[in-house]
Every structure is written in C-alpha cells, then in structure tokens.
Amino acid sequence: MKFVQPIRDKYKIEEMKNELLKSGYKNYLLFICGINTGLRISDLLRLKVHHVRDRSHIIIQEKKTSKEKRFLINNQLKKDFDKYIKRMDDDAYLFVSRKGTNNPISRIQAYRILNAAAEEIGITEIGTHTLRKTFGYWHYQIYKDVAVLQDIFNHSSPSVTLRYIGINQDMKDKTIEDFYL
Q: 164 an active-site residue?
C-alpha cells in the first residue's frame, strides 16, 4: 500500500484546483469537498444532493465506523455546492459516474482523477486519502488544536492524529535540517 502525504503547499492546492477545473466542476468539487471537510473518500462518494441542499451541516453515518458524523458546511463550501447542484435531483449522487444510472464514481476513479491532476502539477505521494490528510494538516496549522482534530477524525490519541497528518515527520525533518556534526 502506497503511503500518501497531505499537500503542505497552499500554492500547490491552488494549482490542483485549477487543474481539476479543466476536467470539470465535479472533479474540482470532489477535491474542494475533501480538503474542506476531512471526510473519508468512502463517505464523500456516498454523498447525495439532499445531504447538502439547504443544509447547514453534512450529517451522515460513516461507512468505516458506523458513527454519525456532523460537519458544518461553511459559507464558501455552500456556494460551491449550490453552484453545482442547482439542476440536480435530491437523490442524485454528488459525484455521479457516467456508468449506469445514478451511481457514484468509484474510489479507483476518484484516485485516477486526483492522480492525473497531481501528475500535471508535479505532486507525488498522492491518493484519495491526501484530501483528508490535507484538511487535517491545514486545520492543525491554523488552529494548533490537536484535540479538536483528533475528535473530528475519531482518532484514539493526539499522537495518532499528528502522525496521520504528517506533523511528526515535519518536526523530525526540522530538527535534522540544520543538524550537522
């Protein structure tokens, strides 16, 4: 299994957004939704229009844990959703596949979409989990509150959360950066 990293460079995040927009708003929204909610890809792909239309929160039962997840849809994300779902039925999947009738794209297809855009802009170590890790990394950088992030991710300890979002690696790298005997 390939180990993926968060996107630590805000410029690269903007490049990803622009690259994904070239292939369609759905692909852009998949990325935006992932990096701004921290939901697992398995939960993102199961989202339907009714989960976000005229709602203040995304409320789902997580596929992995079977726990209820409640996540605020902030004003900017609401605008992104509203633009996309304007003419969609409430029962339609947000990230609908071109195969079949009202099926979500597969995890493999989501990976292909993200990987193709990342390759174009020179990002490596990317996968579908990069979205969740990017959310966590930047949430921590802004708020420095590992306890809140641990709760959002349902992790068992702060150390698990810090390792998951790559902060431990960043701290280790920083201690070695100027270390030379």
A: yes
In a domain, 5, yes or no: no
Residue 63 designated active-site: no
CATH number at residue 71: 1.10.443.10
* Digit-coded pLDDT (tens) for 72-93: 999 999 999 999 999 999 999 9
Q: Is residue 137 part of a domain?
A: yes
Does any domain span residue 134? yes
Number of other residues whose CB lies within 10 A of the CB of residue 175: 9
For the CA atoms of 136, 137, 139, 145, the dihedral, rounded to the nearest 10 degrees, stands at: 90
This prediction has a pTM of: 0.93
From the candidates 46, 48, 129, 133, give the one annotated as an active-site residue: 129
